[in-house]
Design a protein that fits this description.
The chain contains 4 helices and 11 strands; from the N terminus they run E-E-E-H-E-E-E-H-E-E-H-E-E-E-H. The chain has helices at residues 42-53, 89-97, 120-124, 171-188; strands at residues 16-19, 22-26, 30-36, 63-66, 69-75, 78-84, 102-105, 110-116, 142-147, 150-158, 161-167.
């Protein structure tokens, strides 16, 4: 019988490209873990996050960060954890929460793109229906939104650096929408 070995591959093949001054990179090195919070269990989950990783419970539309880990508010009674990707990440989070929350690995269900560079906010104004003014959406802000017809999550890491997340099932369409808008912006802008 033939030996078949399956090898995991990034959703978009590890895309890493530049359009003008803007850099798009698939972040296949990050794990995304969902923690569903049981009824009246927010304090217990918040205590576990803080005591285990020094990670404060994020407020709605905010990201809390400690070292290489981030937590973002996903929905009422839901927190999404971003951390470096390792095979045992889900079991590590489940053990740390010790039954205080319901843990599921969402890593393969999402594509994560880091988009950075001068003018990225201006390019996003045409694509993302959020007020991205730094006073309204500063570094550490996160929001569920839409990118064209696709559901997405936008996180601002720094002034000109974002993470964009969307369903892996529409990853190619997501990348196409993003590159089309950024190409249009690069053509119109003298600074790229």
């Amino acid at each position: 019988m033939a030996e078949i070995t399956l090898k995991p591959t990034p959703c978009l093949g590890g895309v890493d490209l530049r359009i003008g001054a803007i850099h798009i990179q698939e972040r296949d090195d990050l794990a995304l873990i969902c923690v569903a919070i049981p009824q009246e269990g927010e304090a217990a989950v918040a205590d576990a996050l803080l005591s285990t990783w020094d990670l404060p419970m994020p407020a709605p539309q905010r990201v809390s960060t400690a070292g290489e880990r981030s937590a973002l508010w996903g929905a009422p009674d839901q927190v999404l954890l971003l951390a470096p990707r390792v095979p045992e990440r889900e079991s590590e989070v489940a053990a740390a929460l010790d039954g205080k929350g319901y843990v599921t690995d969402q890593t393969h269900a999402w594509v994560i793109l880091e988009v950075s560079g001068p003018g990225v906010q201006a390019a996003f104004e045409r694509l993302v229906p959020l007020d991205l003014d730094p006073d309204m959406f500063p570094a550490g802000a996160a929001a569920r939104t839409a990118l064209e017809h696709m559901a997405a999550i936008a996180l601002r890491l720094e002034a000109e650096r974002f993470l964009l997340l969307s369903a892996s099932s529409s990853a190619r369409s997501f990348l196409h929408a993003l590159t089309t808008t950024l190409s249009w912006r690069a053509e119109l802008s003298p600074d790229g």
